[in-house]
């Protein structure tokens, strides 16, 4: 039996070697088995393989050693069992001794008895995450692990070469960063700063220096008593200048100390410059002078300063030697306590092993960067930086304008006739003194995709023929609900076309020549009246439709109206009655699941209850996550008001690119993505004593990843408490996942709801919903209506149609119906109108998206209409595109919608689908976001945390394998992963930026290409949406203004020039209004730009401007989005290089109708076609330079794949058959 198992193992090893190395040799497999049997650990096994000349990867070594170790363990166990059996049979005649005779039997221990149950530990056998870097799992590998070894590599948490030096958040910014931030201030901010500076100077004059000097100067004793190096450092500078000779420098510190790096010395300021100060040190080898940069000075409050305010000539300071370069010294004051001389940031390289290892890796990284520079590659990203075009060449190429043949002929004739001089020719160059030669035809360059798979994913991708199926979001694609969803899109397009035709007819009926009736002495009757009425057309704002103007009104109120005080409002919440029981449950459980409907007070009150109960330990916080940043800001503002403090003090919030907290903060609201990034730095979340995952039922990607990380944090920290809140009733899944934790339910008002189904499937659910609303309004007793639809366009169309039908029924004198829409694009003050009760005798109809399922609770709803559909964001791994598709909801969502009718009293739910469709065509629960969206950023974060075993990571719902494989491929092509699938130094830096991997790669590449200032602006502009706006009554003028910003390089450079123009106009809102630009979007982009400047400065990344060298900027954009490269399709539109998908340029693009041959796009959106958004022109050879792992130049000796796919299509002739031109069809014809 053992021989058979050995032969089976040899065959398995041979298969593994064939998949990874392409070698199928039984002798080699037996030799590998022999090495594994002699090895005691994975490291030893891998070292032996490498010693024998094999380039084995980590994934292959783990897979082989796991199989071999299991075989060795089984063989040893079999031998031990055989020896025990022979021993027992030999001594069967002897009596067996019991415990009384001195031999106690050894009972078989249950695995559960060996586990030590810590607070919150798993009781259902949940698998903990590995805590050692090279631990080998002892369970037999599953079929999926054997099939995808690249997804189940060993976790590695101790890679010191990837540990980045954490920047000091309290450290002042460098002078360059401060100068850039100063340029972002408008006139009001500058004037305010000047007034504050004048006020400080005035207070200092009358309160300090002026009074002291009037009394005969500052005494030496008083000067020595003042602090040194602060913002008021002028008061402490006279201590060394009290002698008769003011130029002499007095040293009062330890004299004659030897010079060493990171040593602390007393020094005297000898010169003060604009960029810093020079400090003299008295050393053993004599006096040395070093530079103290202004970035290394700071005020006592840690804020930025200028050198003249921080130090003065002759001032005694305590400095640390930061760097030694020959005879030059770099000094710093920030890391030294000026009062005691204590080192605030010890960095003794000779003192410890960890510091020595850090220094070793730092030196190795520097050597690697220098080697890259010698090869002409970037120090950070490794891309080629030898640009062929300089700034002058770029400007030269942009000066030339394309002219048609007729324009060229006309200019030539005018010049020959003598009417026009040669200097007026568009091609005239003043420097050359003549006409520029015609441009040479560009060489046709062919680029092909590299077929080789990454080494760690060999045989696991679709290139190798692996058939991978994504997660289905529809239970039955051929059912009635799926057909209705497809029909709804067609009907929506028809309604859109009808509406556009009506608007066009109205515009066509307007007289085009407004001045003719005034010039005509005898106009037709009424013409002047019409012209006068339409004289201001195109100058007014967009008029609100009649139904919106009628129901929403002009004067709207902000927030939900309440006459109660804040304390009374808190006591009126349902959670207030359960305060004591809730605190008792929190104290007695490490993990607690809290279920309560929206409006019960979970988000705002639980954090305050825990803070009042003393769950906040010194130095730690209570954290609460929100899925949306707007919710985090608004909730924090409300809690700060209830807590009785200013926002940002005891209660604050943190979102991406904005931090409103302080050292006094004890309650912190944040987005779930921000907490995930904090876990990247501190996996055990030592800053938090309690973390509350709010709105967990929404199941965002960040929340799902936090589930696994916080579950492990609970195992490692018994003092840590986790609270998971949800507004839905499916809490058993959360409880089972988190160690069978307790569930605390906040009871709400629930009444019975009658469920009504349709007898036959509905093809047009919008029309069915309109009929149902009118039927309820005319036939049912009083009570408000809640109608669920999918999106803004559908809601607006439905409200308009419903209003028109109510107008037709005015003759029947029906009761008034108030129509109120709810979707995310509406202003918040308009959304709050749905909470106001309807006037007596009226009925309110709320038309909402699925936001009203659990995020909102509206009182007075008795009737719910559920068509059974919602818009779902779905990621297609094949095309790499996110698309919003209309899909059937789940059974859990349907139950949640029906429950909305039972909050105030007994209600009814009209489901516009059959009961069979509910049971057979709907999934039990909704597909979480992690299973239907792109995971590149998530995988990068997990890799940065050391999690390489993505297949066995403790996801509540694991993502599809195809999405993980595609994410790993993309990260490998970006340079974030190496050939073994492990994180690179570049990937570790990319993970530090809170943005997509493509944007972070583009930002880091800009440092190598020396255009980081412009790329920061472009990234900030890409982070906001809808910078331009087109009023419906002034679309032509808005398009004309927008075209003035268009740049021939594409939309990215257009955004750059737009921001620069706004900056030249001193960030004026009036300028934005004149040019049809959203000033709020630009303000948001400005905030993002400021935060990116701070982040790059803290990580010591240079911020350099490239000026007008747009080719360098376009090359940098190509380095991040090379996978989005396209080429013109000979037939129509463009073709993507990676998957050969036909796409089209969006009409709003600056490159529309220019049709450049090569371009890259930022995103691909699906509306009526696959449109490219935010395009940028590139040169084809750049793709091979910035992405050699994906692209290569085509072989010139043979046809490229693109040309091989092209087909000769003859001109259409309606009198002949399509294939009549072929020779095979022309037989017998002459």
Automatic annotation (TrEMBL):
GO terms for molecular function: ATP binding; hydrolase activity; RNA binding; RNA helicase activity. Residues 262-334 form the S1 motif domain. Residues 772-946 form the Helicase C-terminal domain. GO terms for cellular component: catalytic step 2 spliceosome. SMART domains: DEXDc (SM00487), HA2 (SM00847), HELICc (SM00490), S1 (SM00316). Residues 583-747 form the Helicase ATP-binding domain. GO terms for biological process: spliceosomal complex disassembly. InterPro entries: DEAD-box_helicase_OB_fold, DEAD/DEAH_box_helicase_dom, DHX8_GH2-like, DNA/RNA_helicase_DEAH_CS, HA2_WH, Helicase-assoc_dom, Helicase_ATP-bd, Helicase_C-like. Residues 80-147 are annotated as: Disordered. It is an enzyme of class 3 (hydrolase). Its EC number is 3.6.4.13. Keywords: ATP-binding, Coiled coil, Helicase, Hydrolase, mRNA processing, mRNA splicing, Nucleotide-binding, Nucleus. Residues 80-95 have a biased composition (Low complexity). Residues 174-201 form a coiled coil. PROSITE patterns: DEAH_ATP_HELICASE, HELICASE_ATP_BIND_1, HELICASE_CTER, S1. It catalyses: ATP + H2O = ADP + phosphate + H(+). This is RNA helicase.
